User: Fold this.
Amino acid sequence: MFKKSYPEALTSYDFLKTLAVLLMIVDHIGYYFFPGVTTLRILGRFCVPVWFFLVGYAQSRDFRIDWMIGCVVLVVASLFTQGYVLPLNIIGSMIIVRLVIDKLAFVVFMDMQLVLYTTFLAALLYMPSSNIFEYGTLGLLLSLSGYVARHPSEEKGKKERYLVFLIAVFILFFCFQRRVAQISLYEEIFLAAGSFATMVGLQYFRPHSFVMLTEKMPHWLVFFLQLTGRRTMEIYVIHLVFFKLLAVCFDMPGFGGQAWALFYQ
Assistant:
């Protein structure tokens, strides 16, 4: 489904997605061209909860053919520049999440034991599953945090389950993402604080249109925010393909010349 109608005014989605896009590009600049600059990778970690949160927060579960095309394009790009097929890129992860999240949420939040069992099982399966699709079971948990924000509950027992779940997801996200690079103690503190602020802030996210603000802002800035907030799929695919090709041209370590393999080496 390629066509989608958007409001003329800026929305809270535009601001949130633009922030996530900028953090994502910073992360990928670090990964592809400056692997020793760990600060870039840490800043990029904060966009990960946003992308999965939005999948869980969305009301629609329609099949998106543009997601499938984007996923395939990036698989081909990875095969020719880095020599691997799996893990599937984050678009593939979000397609999988979108297919199962409603049924999973119905089961997970039935009682506290299921919340605990689910997070424990997801932690155990994170490593093997992340070899199949990016972020593995952690992506499922982060998406469920979006489901929680979209479906708040006044029921005391369920509110407690939500809270325990969100605390567990934060801890798992921090523990798994701190392994992305060798980081110092100060960087660990920054990663923990930033991850906590991001995940708490996302729980207060709500759809909103900013009509008056849009009228007061420069047209170029409105255009930029709407472009980055409403064309995130295209930006993600195009910039990654470009970065991969650029990394091959500059003979960056791990790019170009590898024998093809099913899994990332």
Q: What stands out?
A: The radius of gyration is 19 Å. The mean pLDDT is 93.
